């Protein structure tokens, strides 16, 4: 592998113009494809095989008029006054005239008026789904009642779903990354070149993703996740190869040879680090959830592009940059200190390995304690940005009717004939009313042929409350006793429960697949059994403490205001499996970067302890910069209003910090020094079976030494 990448690096260096031209052309083609074939994003959470999905499928089949997007217009009279039916009627008529609206129900006819007569709800039914509606339709809906005086009017409902906007606060992370690069590399050219290289990879990856959005349905979170990961790993991979290139230059190699060797050695680590991330993300398909599979594959694609850019485009850009990638002092010939803080830290950690290991494990274990209270749900409008129309409607509905009116569920009852449907749907409505957490259940509403009926359910508590979740379980348990009908309960809370259950079932298989494949891959890289096992165990510490901190802030509300969390509540259902997949891949990145250098020096004759110190000394500065860059990129997404992306960005940022600085740069060298030569032990029979990928570049060194040996022989 190292020899192949060495040749690729030299080829790209020599053919710099052609390589750059190919990537620029590819970037233009992907951009054009994105512009031509861009499709709409979707926030539909399809869950094949679950009760919620069966209910939604029945609605689409038997109640098409009720399967489209819905809107809720909330009206409130001034304090002490009551709503006048004559004043509300024009608002209902205006709502019904919005393009794409099937019906707008008068609250006085539907009895959706609060007991004190001050609040009312106008239900608006659209013909198409929220994803199908044009912006003009949403604008017209938001303008309903804008000229009405004497009452407060707010607009809510799933019709207002919109994709999160990217490009504002997220740029803060990129700016911080640029500053870290400048400080680390000591050269504006090197920093700019590294950042440019990553941006090209992100541009190609995102362009390809958007070009495919016309034929593949993407959720609004998918491009953001792909951007987040593609940018972070793109900068890190380029930084790692650039640092090794600069090291070879200072050792006296010519620029082409330095580029080849940097690509052969550091590039090998990049390829295998990227492979672990791709495996972890692509492995999300085992959950059997379509939107999660697409999300994982999209992010994996951008990571793969980042790897390709790092091992091809970067050597070409290095050729154009010349010696300007070096700091000015080095270009002037000034001596550079051979040892930095990494060596000091490495000696300290290897000397006090056992105490550091005990303190580190105890500390991370304490941080993981809040994870015991982890609760999962799908986000609701109660967590929307304060001041947004959806949040204002949610708060006004809760004020007038109680939070349960924002948690409405639907029971879909289907039989073979109208008479049976009427009887069993009525029985279902009565049984639902007996559930403790239910406030009301409406009389059954049959479809045209009477074979399917809907029972609307209003819980007593909010959409993501534990009481509403329990109510869903109790409703389903009671309705399961009714024979002769197919009954399914759906709604945001019910869908969230089904997502969590399905992900919980898939989690053991996912962990076995991802961790198993990655451990096998690391075994190929390091020719060791204990190093991959140690890497996996360290990851458990990372993910446990990350979940603990995230739960403490986003669910329990500790320091919530500091991170802009207006409404603490359950974490989004798919965050655990997504976070585990991404963090595992990124954790293995730092494992490969650090331990590959330890393995390289050990293979070339250093003692295990000295090899560990050398690995820290050579790569601690780069890994520190890489972790800060990745944290700043992820942290930039914490400033977004979307609760899913905010929690995801925070969890990834804190996870990278813990894994890089506590686990990989502290606990790993401590364990490696304690293991000694045993760290690199591999049974002979297994050594013969496993292919030698030569990540540490031992074969490359022999390959480079052969011409010199032949020349000596001829002389």
UniProtKB/TrEMBL annotation:
It is found in: Cell membrane. SUPFAM superfamilies: Multidrug efflux transporter AcrB transmembrane domain (SSF82866). Keywords: Cell membrane, Membrane, Transmembrane, Transmembrane helix. It is a multi-pass membrane protein. Residues 173-320, 509-674 form the SSD domain. Gene3D superfamilies: Multidrug efflux transporter AcrB transmembrane domain. One of its GO terms (cellular component) is plasma membrane. The chain crosses the membrane at residues 20-39, 171-190, 195-212, 224-245, 266-291, 297-321, 348-369, 510-530, 537-554, 574-595, 622-640, 652-675. InterPro entries: MMPL_dom (IPR004869), Mycobact_MmpL (IPR050545), SSD (IPR000731). PROSITE patterns: SSD. Belongs to the resistance-nodulation-cell division (RND) (TC 2.A.6) family. MmpL subfamily. This is MMPL family transporter. It comes from Herbidospora solisilvae.
């Amino acid at each position: 592998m190292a020899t192949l990448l060495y040749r690729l690096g030299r080829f790209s260096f020599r053919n710099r113009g052609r390589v750059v031209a190919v990537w620029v052309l590819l970037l233009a083609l992907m951009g054009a494809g994105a512009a031509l074939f861009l499709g709409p994003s979707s926030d539909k959470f399809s869950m094949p095989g679950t009760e919620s999905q069966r209910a939604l499928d029945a609605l689409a089949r038997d109640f098409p008029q009720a399967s489209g997007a819905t809107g809720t217009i909330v009206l409130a009279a001034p304090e002490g006054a009551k709503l006048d039916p004559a004043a509300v009627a024009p608002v209902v008529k205006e709502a019904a005239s919005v393009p794409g609206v099937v019906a707008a129900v008068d609250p006085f006819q539907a009895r959706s008026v609060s007991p004190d007569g001050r609040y009312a709800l106008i239900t608006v039914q659209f013909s198409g789904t929220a994803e199908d509606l044009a912006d003009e339709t949403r604008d017209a809906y938001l303008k309903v009642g804008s000229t009405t005086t004497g009452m407060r009017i707010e607009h809510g409902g799933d019709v207002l779903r919109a994709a999160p906007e990217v490009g504002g606060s997220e740029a803060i992370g990129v700016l911080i990354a640029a500053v870290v690069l400048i400080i680390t590399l000591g050269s504006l050219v090197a920093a700019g070149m590294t950042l440019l290289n990553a941006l090209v990879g992100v541009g190609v990856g995102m362009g390809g993703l958007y070009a495919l959005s016309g034929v593949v349905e993407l959720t609004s979170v998918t491009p953001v996740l792909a951007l987040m990961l593609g940018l972070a790993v793109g900068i890190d991979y380029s930084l790692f190869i650039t640092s090794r290139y600069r090291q070879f230059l200072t050792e006296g190699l010519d620029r082409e040879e330095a580029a080849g060797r940097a690509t052969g050695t550091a590039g090998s680590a990049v390829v295998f680090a990227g492979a672990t991330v791709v495996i972890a993300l692509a492995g999300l398909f085992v959950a059997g959830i379509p939107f999660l599979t697409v999300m994982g594959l999209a992010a994996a694609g951008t990571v793969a592009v980042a790897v390709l850019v790092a091992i091809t485009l970067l050597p070409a850009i290095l050729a154009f940059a010349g010696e300007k990638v070096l700091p000015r002092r080095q270009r002037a010939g000034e001596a550079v200190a051979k040892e930095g803080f990494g060596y000091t830290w490495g000696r300290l950690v290897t000397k006090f390995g056992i105490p550091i290991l005990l303190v580190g494990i105890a500390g991370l274990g304490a941080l993981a304690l809040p994870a015991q209270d982890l609760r999962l749900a799908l986000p609701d409008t109660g967590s929307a940005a304060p001041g947004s129309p959806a949040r204002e409607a949610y708060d006004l509905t809760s004020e007038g009717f109680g939070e349960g009116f924002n948690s409405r569920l639907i029971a879909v009852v289907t039989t073979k004939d109208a008479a049976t449907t009427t009887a069993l749907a009525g029985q279902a409505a009565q049984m639902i009313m007996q559930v403790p957490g239910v406030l009301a259940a409406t009389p059954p509403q049959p479809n045209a042929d009477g074979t399917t009926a809907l029972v609307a359910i209003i819980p007593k508590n909010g959409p993501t409350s534990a009481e509403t979740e329990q109510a869903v379980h109790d409703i389903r348990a009671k309705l399961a006793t009714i024979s002769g009908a197919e009954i399914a309960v759906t709604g945001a809370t019910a869908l969230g429960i089904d997502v969590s259950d399905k992900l919980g079932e898939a989690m053991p298989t996912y962990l076995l697949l991802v961790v198993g494949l990655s451990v096998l891959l690391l075994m190929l890289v390091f020719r060791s059994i204990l190093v991959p096992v140690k890497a996996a165990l360290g990851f458990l510490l990372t993910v446990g403490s990350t979940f603990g901190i995230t739960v403490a802030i986003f669910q329990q509300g500790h320091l919530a205001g500091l991170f802009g969390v207006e409404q603490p509540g359950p974490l989004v259902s798919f965050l655990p499996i997504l976070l585990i997949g991404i963090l595992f891949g990124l954790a293995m990145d730092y494992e490969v970067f650090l331990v590959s250098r330890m393995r390289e020096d050990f293979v070339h004759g250093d003692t295990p302890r000295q090899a560990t110190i050398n690995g820290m000394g050579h790569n601690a500065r780069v890994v520190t910069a890489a972790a800060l860059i990745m944290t700043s990129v992820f942290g930039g997404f914490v400033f977004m209003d979307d609760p899913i992306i905010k929690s995801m960005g925070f969890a990834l940022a804190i996870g990278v910090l813990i894994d890089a600085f506590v686990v990989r740069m502290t606990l790993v060298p401590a364990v490696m020094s304690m293991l000694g030569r045993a760290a690199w032990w591999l049974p002979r029979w297994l050594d013969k079976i496993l292919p030698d990928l030569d990540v540490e570049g031992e074969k490359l060194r022999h390959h480079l030494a052969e011409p010199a040996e032949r020349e000596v022989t001829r002389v």
